[in-house]
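Q: My labmate handed me this sequence with no annotations at all. I'd like to see what the chain might look like in three dimensions before we decide whether it's worth expressing. Could you predict it?
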Amino acid sequence: MTEEEKIIGENNYSASNIQVLEGLEAVRKRPAMYIGDISENGLHHLVYEVVDNAIDEAMAGYCDRIDVTINDDNSITVQDNGRGIPVDYHEKEKKSALEVVMTVLHAGGKFDKGSYKVSGGLHGVGVSCVNALSTHMTTQVFRNGKIYQQEYECGKPLYAVKEVGSCDLGFTGTKQTFWPDGSIFTVTEYKYETLQTRLRELAYLNKGIYISLTDLRVKDEDGMPRKEVFHSEEGVKEFVRYLNSNNTPLFNDVIYLNTEKTGVPIECAIMYNTGYRENLHSYVNNINTKEGGTHEAGFRSALTRVLKKYAEDTCPKALEKAKVEIAGEDFREGLIAVISVKVAEPQFEGQTKTKLGNNEVSGAVNQAVGEALSYYLEEHPKEAKLIVDKVIVAATARVAARKARESVQRKNPLGGGGLPGKLADCSSKNKDICELFLVEGDSAGGSAKSGRSREFQAILPLRGKILNVEKAMWHKAFESEEVNNIIQALGVRFGVDDEDSKQANIDKLRYDKVIIMADADVDGAHIATLIMTLFYRYMPELIEEGHLYIAQPPLYKCTKGKVSEYCYTDEDRKAFMEKYGDGTESGIHTQRYKGLGEMNADQLWETTMDPATRRLKQVHVENAAEADYIFSMLMGDEVGPRRDFIEQHATYANIDA
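A: Here is what I predict for the chain of 657 residues:
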């Protein structure tokens, strides 16, 4: 954007640009319709809605700084140096434009294409939704050398917009502070790491801007709050390096493009590593399109077309010697890529409305990626050969995986002999109530079998630690007895529509809940992580549809006189000591459970398996890119990042004395 365009945009951004689509009714009555849910995800979504407004200003070229603060009382402050929300009179609504933006759903400058060419935010519910779901909200606007302010309670203004001070004439921006409504949200405590992940992602996707995150609840020994600043000069090029940092690169180059085709700005970065998985992360207007769409289709088409032609033209003898037919997925093994497009009128489809449907984007991405990749391969023959060699290995492994999988899946569960011998199945055939417990060790498995409800609870004991699929080629999982036992017990199939497909088909899933039950110690945590890695890499649909859980066995049984309680956390134990003693261990007997096998069947049922009393944690993926990073770091080959992570989180680790 030129300086002249910038000045015109600043001068023309006024109340007339604010268009109203509908009112604010029903947000407080049905909040989940607008922010997804009323638990942790919805709570953090409030912050994203406010930050998205600032990001829109950044994408339009008017903002380069966004400061997010978690205050001592768990309220949130977001301040940017954009143009500031217009405060002049809105003719249609007969009130200040600021009040319109803050109190009317779907009101804002993003609906006026003269103000914003593209804008973020998935549903566009806007800051008014945040206002409606907050007990109190204060908005300050810095424009024209003045500070304007309005406050609200549950979305209703307490007074008309007014001047409350002055500022430098050249200083502009918006400052929002809000207190989420505890009567609506089930949790009101913000997680630093959750906000950290999203803000880091936004910094990568919008290179050049500075985004800070400050947590006033946490102070260091000098009394300074925890703070980070996210900034990227290289954008998604830097993002893909971050995502690949826990892997061994096939070569150090990043294949990068930043261009515009048929009016669609496209930024893409590609790296290869020595691993066996494809990690493609796509974004539209900063929205993570978890279900893919036309931009991903264009990317994959270009990758397959260009690499296949290059391999056939330059390495025909190698392909002939391998005696395998190269498939599209072979070119994506070990691939880590980020693709970000900006679309003026995005059309979202899919179950969660995160699948791009604009057909014109596919061709634009196909052309852009094809040109950039062709140029790179021609200019870098050494790296190109490394890719082709890896593709041939991937194709060979794919054939081996098909044979291994077929030998496992040849047995039909309905025909007998298809279920693992160690499985103690439940009697009910109603999948909606059935549960499968994956239990660490034969000892705990025996207690679980005795203590369970035979009607709806199945038990599959696992011997030791299962294969770490993060480090193994695809077909190795189907050669592992313990992994095969899990797959067979679940009824999950692979290669249903395509014999070479790596996509799991969970249509025949035999249980509604799959529950990992491991000891509450370091080994148990490792086993649980290995099992989660298997599901995340081989059966992500099972996680996405909400079937995977982790059981929480108690750490202690505390007794004072005739009173006994199971304590699942150190906080529970402390609360017991304060309730029945003086806050210390004078007169309180504590039994520490080091493993599930130490409990008899009745105790295991009462504490960990009974739906009326147990504690289950549902496994879900908030951010696919960060999940890939974490799994690669925890279970991959690189030791350094894992050591740093363990040291950083050592205070939270449950380590036995």
